[in-house]
């Protein structure tokens, strides 16, 4: 039986939950892996009716918990502040974007010192803490300057590999390895693959006899820009040629069949600012179908990365002791 699940977490209560589970079961404290996608529509993936190939995510959903109602009152980096601290974004200092950088404590553009991150909380309870991916919890000025007080290593993570900024070129990225900046490009570099490989390496090298593992895998995919590998784009070149009107109808039918919505639910009307597919010129259709294929390829690559992470846990014999 697999214990890998999707969980909604707030840092301090979750630490208590892990400790309580250990006391009641007598088992080793579970490893914890939190995976975050960036700007992805929930119906894009297979387990929610999407046409994009996401077998690894779908398997986790099949053996775990699939939410049918979930609400979030924040966006972008404020939602990351919520995930990392368990607080409302204004309480954590990120009521707006990282570009805020103003004197108001609610809108300072980075997480404040009055909050505790989940990495800090779990680290204090004996967890090894790792992050691979996009941080985006410090001001733009902090990302570019010498002030690293709110970078991942300074907010509870033992190791970090990723980007501290809000976006990056997928083929030519200014990466951060712990606290050191490293330019990555060429030699087949693709940021989604690189982040997944880093996370897998953290899992492989961790000493589980010494302490349990906490991994925060924050993919930047499928956030803008639209950058994907050719071999992944090729899988979707023909899928989107019929356009978004037929696509949303097909997704909705699958969602009804999957029980995500009750029978008799009516599909929402198309956004009035989005033109009908039939009203577009041939050139516009070709452009938009290509964009959708690239986006799908970005999600596909992320799913491949999740497969690597799952396999790394299995190879270390930790999959069944991981939340």
In the CATH hierarchy, the architecture is 3-Layer(aba) Sandwich
Spans of at least 5 consecutive residues whose pLDDT stays below 50 are 1-14
Overall number of strands: 6
Strand content: 5-15%
CATH fold call: Alkaline Phosphatase, subunit A
Shape: globular
Helix content: 25-40%
**Secondary-structure-derived class:** alpha/beta
Number of domains: 1
Integer-rounded radius of gyration: 20 Å
Please name the fourth-level CATH homologous superfamily: Alkaline Phosphatase, subunit A
Instruction: Give the topology string: H per helix, E per strand.
Output: HEHHHHEHEEEHEHHH
| Amino-to-carboxy terminus distance | 13 Å
- Give a short account of the largest sheet: 6 strands, mixed
Write the SSE topology.
Elements (H helix, E strand, L loop, with lengths): L10 H15 L6 E5 L18 H8 L13 H10 L3 H4 L25 H7 L3 E7 L5 H5 L14 E5 L8 E6 L2 E6 L5 H15 L7 E6 L11 H4 L10 H14 L24 H34 L8
Helix pairs in contact: 1-5, 7-10
Any descriptors?
alpha/beta, 11% strand, 323 residues, 6 strands, six-stranded mixed sheet, 36% helix, single chain, 10 helices, disordered N terminus, globular, Alkaline Phosphatase, subunit A
Describe the structure.
The protein has 323 residues and is of the alpha/beta class. It has a single domain, classed as Alkaline Phosphatase, subunit A. Helices cover 36% and strands 11% of the residues. The chain has 10 helices and 6 strands, in the order αβααααβαβββαβααα. Strands 1-6-2-3-4-5 form a 6-stranded mixed beta sheet, with helices on both faces. Strand 3 and strand 4 form a beta hairpin. Helix 1 (11-25) runs parallel beside helix 5 (118-124). It is globular and about 55 Å long. It starts with 10 loop residues before the first helix and ends in an 8-residue tail after the last helix. The model is unreliable at 1-14 (pLDDT under 50).
